[in-house]
Design the sequence.
């Protein structure tokens, strides 16, 4: 049985708070771009850009980053990994990049994302925004902006569901290899 962590409204509030923190820390949006890590990080980055547009009236560039070929465990994943594609239609040089992902765990995805970005150019800095920090880092990487910290054991999975991909909005925690049935306690 899955344990309910956040519902759609709570996810929206957390993302709005993260977006405001990005605005405050960067003292505006000059040279700030959002890059979502495939798949759910892309949805969250687009939502952050929408929040900025609604509150500040400014359109922030959003890029899409696929780190699949940069993963250090690529050979363990699949003989034929799924490539979702990268689409960054702007130069990263001199930009203040906010990488956006749904969950940070070991730090390996973020490391891969940084490698991809550095192969594209030299940003002014790279910041990390995540909806959920579950702990368990294997690399010295931490998020600058966190929606919620949810400590989880190695045998647990944090599922972030977004309407655009999953048809529902929630975050829950399940045991590995367990059928998903949400407990809303």
Sequence:
């Amino acid at each position: 049985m899955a344990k309910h962590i956040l519902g759609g409204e709570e996810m929206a509030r957390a993302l709005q708070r993260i977006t405001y923190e990005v605005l405050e820390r960067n003292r505006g949006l000059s040279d700030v771009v959002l890059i979502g890590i495939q798949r759910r990080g892309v949805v969250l980055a687009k939502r952050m850009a929408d929040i900025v547009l609604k509150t500040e009236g400014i359109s922030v560039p959003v890029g899409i980053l696929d780190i699949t070929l940069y993963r250090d465990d690529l050979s363990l994943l699949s003989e034929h990994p799924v490539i979702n594609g990268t689409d960054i239609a702007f130069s990263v040089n001199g930009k203040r990049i906010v990488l956006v992902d749904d969950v940070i765990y070991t730090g390996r995805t973020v490391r891969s994302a940084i490698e991809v970005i550095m192969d594209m150019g030299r940003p002014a800095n790279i910041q990390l925004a995540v909806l959920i920090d579950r702990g368990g880092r294997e690399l010295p990487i931490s998020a600058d902006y966190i929606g919620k910290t949810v400590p989880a054991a190695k045998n647990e999975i944090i599922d972030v569901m977004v309407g655009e991909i999953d048809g529902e909005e929630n975050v829950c925690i399940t045991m590995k290899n367990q059928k998903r049935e949400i407990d809303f306690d």
